[in-house]
Amino acid sequence: MAVSLKDPQDGDLSEVSDINVTPFIDVILVLLIIFMVAAPLSTVDVAVDLPVSNAQPQPRPDTPVFLTVKGDLSLALGNDGVPREALQATLDRQTNNDREQRVFLRADGAVAYRELMDVMNLLRNAGYLKIALVGLEDTGQSPAPATGPKP
């Protein structure tokens, strides 16, 4: 509620029933600008070509356990091939049943993300929850050309 001070000699102040909407409009315009800027940023329709990692390498254990997903989707534990059905038993033998040991998972660039997730689910079902993804280190040089299938 606002008051008008038109006639100070009267002694009684009359009420002004007009609402000042200018601050309300200012707030609405600021919110509109914020949403106009934030809305395009919230959509995720960008094609993903994952880059090489530039994170600091972590120290490696004395005997790391490397699980490799080859381009033909076969698995290799260290340098030896292993069938998916025998993965848990082979991992248990190699880690001496230490399921807290970290498993380093690496995959060929041609392996689909879905296939990599299937292997991670195999590891999780086997009880190995500490999984590290292995990638190339960023040396500051331009990446090597992709060696994909030729048309």
UniProtKB/TrEMBL annotation:
Q: Which GO terms describe its cellular component?
A: plasma membrane
A GO BP term here is: protein transport
Annotated membrane-spanning segments are 20-41
* Compartments it resides in: Cell inner membrane; Cell membrane
UniProt keyword Thylakoid present: no
Provide the membrane topology annotation. Single-pass type II membrane protein
Q: Does the keyword tRNA-binding apply?
A: no
Q: Which GO-annotated molecular functions does the record name?
A: transmembrane transporter activity
Under the heading Pfam families, the entry gives: ExbD
Instruction: Quote the function comment for this protein.
Output: Involved in the TonB-dependent energy-dependent transport of various receptor-bound substrates.
* Similarity comment text for this entry: Belongs to the ExbD/TolR family.
The protein, known as: Biopolymer transport protein ExbD
Source organism per UniProt: Bosea lathyri
